[in-house]
Amino acid sequence: MKKSICVFFILSSFFNVFADEFYYKNLSKIEMEVLRNDKVIGYSNYFFKHNGDTMVVENYTKFNIEMFGIKVFSINSKSKEVYQKDKLLSFESSTLQNDKKKFVKLVYDKNKHKFFINGSSYVGEANHENIIGNWWNARILETNTQVSPLSGSIKKQEVKFISEDEVEYKSKIIKLSKFKLKSTEDLPDDKKLDFDIWLEPNTGIIFKVNYNRLGSWEYRLKNYE
């Protein structure tokens, strides 16, 4: 019972922050390191541009895994999200994953009040409440479904509060809330969502994301402005 009350308070607090004032309008960038087995192998950086009620978020993600000098896994991706008054209008991405091309083109249809997605894994309509599965947006913890930023596939999910935690960031101790995000549908192991996410609830900044898939992976906040 106490844990349920705590979860409600935490989620309510940072989503009320967004309701009162869209926090991300104050951001210019979020930089994250990508680690595998505790070794930095690349980056995932977000850049924010603001013009009145419009916000554009651009992401550049790149990492590479080599074994014995041979490339075994790589991602080189870029994307662009456009929001107006905190509502997603469009999303577009292009990704080279192990030399395989993936893409997403999403637009909001105002007449139908739905998204239309043309992606490498899915083509069709989607509920307007879907969130793009990027790590800059804390609303990924609020939604029941997310759109893959690489392929456009729609995945059902659930989010549970795990515990309070702390992390050292720029010589300061930051109090964080830890969540578990998991798939709620039967999917192949390599398609399932299973992430541990550490959030600073007062600002909505995601400080860390962990998951295991052919090794231990981590997206770790390096800097934000």
What would your notes on this structure say?
By secondary structure, the chain is mainly beta. The chain has a single domain (2-224), classed as YmcC-like fold, CATH 2.40.360. The chain contains one helix and 15 strands, in the order H-E-E-E-E-E-E-E-E-E-E-E-E-E-E-E. The chain has a 15-stranded mixed sheet with strand order 8-7-6-5-4-3-2-1-15-14-13-12-11-10-9, with helices on one face. Strand 5 and strand 6 (100-109) form a beta hairpin. The longest helix has 19 residues, at 2-20. The protein starts with a helix and ends with a strand. The relative contact order is 0.16. Mean pLDDT is 89; it is low at 1-9 and 17-22.
From the 3D structure, determine the CATH topology. YmcC-like fold
Q: Can you tell me the residue ranges where pLDDT is under 50 for at least 5 consecutive residues? A: 1-9, 17-22
Structural shape: globular
Please provide the count of β strands.
Answer: 15
Q: What is the strand arrangement across the widest sheet?
A: 8-7-6-5-4-3-2-1-15-14-13-12-11-10-9
Helical/strand content category:
mainly beta
Give the total of domains.
1
CATH level-two architecture: Beta Barrel
Helix-strand topology string: HEEEEEEEEEEEEEEE
Q: Beta-strand level of the residues, as a percent range?
A: over 45%
Radius of gyration based on Cα positions: 17 Å
Distance between the termini: 37 Å
**Can you count the helices?**
1
Look at the structure and give the mean pLDDT: 89
Q: Which CATH class is shown?
A: Mainly Beta
The largest sheet is: 15 strands, mixed
Helix content: under 10%
